[in-house]
Design a protein that fits this description.
Elements lengths: L1 H9 L1 E6 L2 E5 L12 E6 L2 E3 L5 E3 L17 E11 L4 E12 L5 E4 L3 E4 L12 E3 L9 E5 L10 E10 L5 E11 L5 E4 L4 E3 L10 E4 L7 E5 L9 E10 L5 E11 L5 E4 L3 E5 L5 H7 L1 E5 L11 E4 L7 E10 L5 E11 L5 E4 L4 E3 L11 E4 L9 E6 L7 E10 L5 E11 L5 E2 L5 E5 L3 E3 L5 E2 L7 E2 L3 E3 L4 E10 L5 E11 L5 E4 L3 E5 L11 E5 L11 E4 L7 E10 L5 E11 L5 E3 L3 E4 L11 E3 L6 E5 L9 E10 L5 E11 L1 H34 L1
Parallel strand pairs: 2-7, 9-13, 15-19, 21-25, 27-31, 33-39, 41-45, 47-51
Antiparallel strand pairs: 1-3, 3-4, 5-6, 6-7, 8-10, 11-12, 12-13, 14-16, 17-18, 18-19, 20-22, 23-24, 24-25, 26-28, 29-30, 30-31, 32-35, 34-37, 36-38, 38-39, 40-42, 43-44, 44-45, 46-48, 49-50, 50-51
Length: 686
């Protein structure tokens, strides 16, 4: 057993992890000396020793108190792991790297403000910083983003300070350089400020604004004292402000003058007006497009219109438009007006341009009225152009041209129709027709005639009558010209077909005395060509006597609502099909006893005329054992029943001897068993 433990320990190994540990400078070594770990394994599997412990002090003369973390560098130190359960120890050299992991600290960050165009100062002046380990002179200071500062443009520019210690720990801080402008803008007057009454006052037309920043200057005009709609001298104030908020003010005078006439604008300098147009004064006034003045409020109603126009006579005339303001400044415009006849003659259609088939002439004056707004009818030049075939239906073109003395020409182009206006005629003598339900009636046999078409068309070719009773159908006969005639026919729709009964059989055989059958069960299907009939609609006449042999009839009778009848018969035969009933049971009889072969046998039947046969018809009771007897019963209709029973012949004395023998055996067996028990029990006690 001891040798096995030694062999087991030889298979075990100790594995160390975290044998190199980083220790921040100035830190207590106690926080880091326990980081290394030892693990005991056997064949790659970890073995747990509940009593395992570490030795951190005194291993190979390495003492914890000798470890100094106030200096950067590598410290070699020996520790030991003990697994007492397995009598195993393991030493391991641990490397402690004393390092600096803290960033420098920036204590003070300066900010800078310079004037526009001023040189950028030394931005490291005013910056204060320190480090947890290194001296200040060992630290490196970088200034980032300094090249983005534009001292020629107002703005606030960020810069970044970066302080780096020899361990490459970096600390950053952000500051800014603000470039400011404190010189106000300059206002230079270019010319005397004079504005025409009503015109816009744009101060940049009279002044030049500049700034040392070179950027756009906001200019605010205070003109609250100026009335731009009144001639006079007014004081105003200008405020020029640059983006840095520097302000320059300038006070000056504005002179408003007025030297212009009213403005009169017309749509046209030449107007064409139709002769006899009584509303021509409105046309002249509507030619005024715009009237305005810088001083007065003027409208179209302030314009005076003068002329010598005779609206009822063609010719050329002049019209004068004049408007004046309160300064006696006026505007006059003269235009030419032409009184013209520009209206075409009017060609009015008095009636439909339809010629009934059969008429042989066409008079245009009966269908058209031609007039003119200025010329008399006799002064008009009128021409008609058409060609009509009165014997052929169709459309024929007509063209009418009418010109007045002013060369205005009206043209009418239309269609003259030669049309069939008479409808077809029905040649039907009867108005009432009888048809069978579901009959498809062919209406093409109805005669129709027409004055033009040889074969007028009916709106219906055929119709299926699905409902009995009277049905009115309106026939419409149409010819090729769309003329229609109507004819109302009354159809008496009748149903003369009997319903149908389909039975499952035409013959039923039943036993006499049977229970009453359900007659409906023998109906396969019931239907009618028109009515919705069901099996329950069938009437059944029963003539059957179930208790008497014979042939009977079941009569099935069905009627639809139109009185059509259907009758079907099933022949029912009542016969005796019941077998006789033999009731018996097996028996045990004494040895050599007398026995009646029919003893205990009951045979019944609905037919009293029975024949009974027994095989065998005798039992020899002197023979012990089981005897088999077959009974056969046959009625007068040949129904037969067969049944077998067993008769056992027994000797009762044999049973008494058997019981006595069994009793003696039980007594002997019990005695032997009791004696044996006492013998062995006594022997056991000894």
């Amino acid at each position: 057993m001891y040798i096995f433990k030694i062999f087991q320990m030889l298979l075990m190994a100790v594995t160390w992890t975290n044998i190199e540990v980083d220790v921040p400078v100035y830190s207590s070594i106690d926080e880091y000396i326990t980081i290394p770990e030892a693990t005991l394994t056997e064949n790659g599997n970890i073995v747990i020793d509940e009593n395992m412990y570490y030795v951190y002090d005194g291993v190979d003369n390495n003492f914890r108190s000798d470890i100094e973390t106030n200096y950067l560098g590598r410290i070699r130190y020996m520790i030991k792991a003990v697994f007492p359960t397995y009598h195993i120890e393991s030493k391991q050299e641990i490397i402690f790297n004393v390092i600096d992991i803290d960033n420098p600290t920036i204590l003070t960050v300066p900010t800078f403000t310079i004037l526009l165009g001023e040189k950028i100062p030394d931005v490291k002046i005013g910056l204060d910083y320190k480090d947890n380990f290194y001296q200040k002179n060992e630290l490196i200071v970088n200034v980032l983003s300094l090249d983005t500062v534009n001292n020629k443009k107002v703005g606030r520019y960020p810069i970044t300070y970066q302080v780096i210690d020899p361990s490459n720990n970096i600390e950053t801080a952000t500051s800014y350089i603000e470039v400011v402008d404190r010189i106000p803008p300059n206002i230079e007057k270019l010319k005397e400020v004079i504005v025409e009454l009503g015109e816009e006052f744009n101060i940049r037309n009279f002044y030049k604004f500049t700034d040392d920043s070179g950027e756009y200057i906001d200019v605010i005009l205070d003109d609250t004292n100026i009335n731009y709609n009144k001639v006079g001298m007014y004081q105003f104030n200008i405020v020029a402000k640059d983006k840095s908020g520097n302000v320059t003010q300038h006070f000056d005078l504005l002179k408003i003058i007025y030297t212009k006439s009213p403005e009169l604008v017309l749509f046209s300098n030449v107007l064409d007006i139709d002769v006899n147009d009584l509303d021509y004064e409105t046309i002249l006034k509507e030619n005024i497009k715009h009237v305005s003045d810088k001083v007065d409020v003027l409208s179209i109603d302030n314009v005076f219109i003068t002329h010598l126009i005779n609206i009822n006579k063609l010719g050329k005339y002049q019209v004068e438009y004049k408007v004046k303001n309160s300064f006696n400044k006026e505007k006059t415009t003269i235009i030419n007006v032409n009184i013209l006849d520009r209206t075409k003659p009017n060609i009015e259609v008095l009636s439909d341009l339809i010629i009934p088939y059969g008429i042989t002439n066409f008079i245009p004056q009966n269908h058209f009225k031609i007039t003119d707004n200025y010329d008399e009818y006799s002064d008009l030049n009128i021409s008609y152009n058409y060609k009509i075939d009165f014997k052929t239906l169709g459309d024929y073109s007509i063209r009418i041209e009418a010109s007045d003395t002013s060369k205005n020409k009206a043209v009418f182009e239309g269609i003259i129709k030669v049309s069939d206006l008479e409808p077809p005629v029905f040649l039907v003598s009867e108005d009432v027709i009888e048809v069978k339900v579901f009959t498809i009636y062919n209406f093409s046999n109805i005669l129709v005639t027409d004055n033009y078409d040889k074969n007028p068309t009916l709106n219906i070719n055929s119709y299926e009558f699905r409902i009995i009773g009277q049905k009115e159908i309106t026939l419409i006969a149409s010819d090729s010209s769309g003329n229609q005639s109507k004819k109302v026919l009354v159809f008496n729709v009748v149903d003369d077909e009997a319903p149908i009964i389909i039975l499952k059989t035409n013959e039923i055989k039943l036993s006499m005395g049977s229970k009453r059958i359900n007659y409906i069960d023998y109906i396969e299907e019931v239907y009618d060509n028109y009515d919705f009939l069901e099996i329950s609609d069938v009437k059944i006449i029963d003539t059957i006597n179930y208790n008497e042999l014979g042939i009977y009839e079941l009569i099935y009778y069905l009627t639809d609502q139109s009185g059509n009848e259907e009758c079907k018969i099933i022949e029912v035969k009542i016969d005796d099909t019941t077998k006789p009933i033999i009731s018996l049971k097996d028996e045990v009889i004494p040895y050599k006893s007398k026995y009646n072969i029919l003893s205990g046998v009951l045979i019944t039947d609905n037919d009293p005329d029975l024949k009974i046969y027994v095989y065998p018809n005798y039992i020899d009771t002197s023979k012990l054992g089981v005897h088999q007897i077959t009974y056969v019963a046959i009625d007068s209709r040949g129904n037969i029943q067969t049944k077998t029973r067993l008769i056992e012949v027994k000797d009762k004395n044999i049973n008494i001897k058997t019981y006595l023998y069994i009793g003696i055996n039980l007594v002997i067996t019990s005695s032997i068993t009791g004696f044996s028990y006492l013998y062995f029990e006594k022997k056991k006690r000894k």
